[in-house]
Design goal:
The chain is an alpha/beta fold. It has 4 domains: 8-122, GMP Synthetase, Chain A, domain 3 (2-Layer Sandwich), CATH 3.30.300.180; 138-309, P-loop containing nucleotide triphosphate hydrolases (Rossmann fold, 3-Layer(aba) Sandwich); 314-386, Helicase, Ruva Protein, domain 3 (Orthogonal Bundle); 397-488, Chromosomal Replication Initiator Protein Dnaa, Chain: A. The protein is built from 23 helices and 9 strands. Strands 6-7-8-5-9 form a 5-stranded parallel β-sheet, sandwiched between helices. Strands 1-2-3-4 form a 4-stranded mixed β-sheet. α10 packs antiparallel against α11. 32% of the residues are buried.
């Protein structure tokens, strides 16, 4: 926790370690929540400066980064810092100058690197920085980096993912223009293998068909590069670079926001398809639930092959753990992890591959660092807080939108559209109000679910409905009825 007896903590003074340690923990939580690619795109260069009078100052190297983080992650960053210290009331993001950059604390940076290296060592190289693997990316700085672990051979196949796996394998092995489908859309929740499959396609093509031009991109990387091209007046070159490839792999499609960016991406899709090229897209939800997606793009993607990734069955979970044990034994020859321990972990950790990875790493850490013998009992102690009790049913923003739209006799698509007629605006504001008061979603996240709107629009809607229901008992009763109906339809 922060030094609570001081009104000011500086990143350059004697209390550096307190602020730096808190920032390290916040970074790790962001990395875990957002994934390595998103984290590297937006937070790798963020640095804490000072904590003064309740305002925490963070610095970034560019105005673009400042704007993006403020628009999309400000609330989450503030919440994570508040978990560290109750002194933080506000987060201020600044564009740092060369003078500020020079103030970086070498001792803390060195300690951070040592910690990262130790973590990667222990996890069997489970974390890769973009700078470590950038050499594996093609097309200059356009492509996102690839993780060398994510090959087609290392993907564990079961009934829950067989269709997506076979489709990806066909894309990887087909000659240009010969695949049975031009577009492959893969969807599934976090940690089920979407990124693994996409990157395995890229690795296979680069190994077996060197003349075939392939680019793997996250949606956020696409947005970042497109905006950079606009600012540098290099849009034509950017478009040419994308449209002259044979295979385009786009990950985390749910993060592609904004009509201009979606329109440009749709043009790219059309150009590649008409030229007989191949596209593979991955997202964390079905196409029908990508509410902010341009209808033309949705139609293009729906016309291809759609494959889902479902929760792993026990057989897949066990095989993942066996492979991790084999990798760990090469690193730690004295490691002894009995089969019954793997069985126990596979029974207890039923979420996704990332949860399994975390559980396995904890058990190995207790063995290698604390010298505990690996038994079912010690494994139980190591992963106790990872074993989830049955989660309460959740309220989803999509469900709120559907119910409110039906109640007011409008369509869900109209709720997230740019239309501003009174018959649409009022239901939209009520939907935003219910989304904020009935879910744990942030203002920026709710804005994204309502057609990519700014977080200030959501804040305005919430405050407006709060004021109206305090003054209008009829509206208050109507909103309360909607609230009860939403409670009844939890999934």
């Amino acid at each position: 926790m922060a030094n609570r007896d001081s009104g000011r903590v500086s990143a350059g003074g004697g209390r550096t370690k307190s602020l730096a340690n808190m920032w390290r923990r916040v970074r790790e939580r962001l990395r875990a929540e957002l994934g390595e690619e998103v984290f590297q795109s937006w937070f790798a260069s963020v640095e804490p400066e000072d904590l003064n009078g309740g305002t925490l100052s963070l610095s970034v190297p560019t105005k673009f980064l400042k704007s993006w983080i403020q628009s999309h992650y400000q609330d989450r960053v503030l919440a994570l810092w508040k978990n560290e210290t109750d002194k933080v009331m506000k987060v201020d993001i600044r564009v740092r100058t060369p003078t500020v950059l020079a103030k970086a604390n070498d001792e803390e940076a060195s300690a951070s690197k040592m910690l990262d290296a130790a973590s990667n060592n222990l996890a069997g190289s489970s974390g890769f920085m973009a700078s470590d693997i950038g050499a594996h990316s093609s097309s200059g700085d356009l492509a996102s980096p690839l993780d060398p672990r994510f090959t087609i051979d290392s993907f564990v196949v079961g009934d829950s993912n067989r269709l997506a796996y076979e489709a990806a394998r066909q894309v990887a092995s087909s000659n240009p223009g010969t695949a049975d489908f031009k577009v492959l859309y893969i969807h599934g929740s976090v940690g089920l293998g979407k990124t693994h499959l996409l990157q395995s396609v890229a690795w296979t093509v680069r190994r077996e068909q060197r003349s075939r031009r392939v680019i793997y991109l996250t949606a956020e990387r696409f947005m970042y590069r497109f905006v950079s091209a606009l600012k540098q007046k290099e849009v034509v070159a950017f478009k040419d670079q994308l449209r002259n490839i044979d295979l385009l792999l786009i990950d985390d499609m749910q993060f592609l926001q904004g009509p201009t960016l979606q329109q440009e991406f749709c043009h790219t899709l059309n150009a590649l398809i008409e030229a007989g090229r191949q596209i593979v897209v991955a997202a964390d939800r079905p196409l029908v639930d990508l509410d902010s997606l341009d209808e033309r793009m949705r139609s293009r993607l729906s016309a291809g092959l759609v494959a889902d990734l479902r929760t792993f069955d026990k057989g897949v979970r066990l095989e993942i753990l066996r492979r991790r044990r084999a990798v760990a034994k090469r690193r730690f020859p004295n490691l002894n992890m009995p089969d019954q321990v793997l069985e126990y972990v596979a029974d207890q950790i039923t979420g996704n591959g990332r949860d399994l990875e975390g559980a396995f790493t904890r058990i190995v850490a207790r063995n290698q660092l604390a010298k505990y013998e690996i038994t079912v009992e010690t494994a139980e102690n190591a992963i106790r807080d990872l074993v989830r009790t049955p989660e309460p049913r959740r309220i989803r923003i999509e469900g709120i939108q559907r119910l409110v739209a039906k109640h007011f006799n409008v369509t869900k698509q109209e709720l997230i559209s740019p239309r501003r007629t009174r018959s649409i605006v009022r239901p939209r504001q009520i939907s935003m109000y219910l989304a904020k008061t009935m879910t744990d979603r942030s203002f920026p996240d709710i804005g994204r679910r309502f057609g990519g709107r700014d977080h200030t629009t959501v804040l305005h809607a919430v405050r407006k409905i709060e004021k109206m229901i305090s003054e209008d008992t009829t509206l208050a009763s109507e909103v309360e009825m909607l609230r009860r109906l939403i409670e009844d339809m939890k999934d």
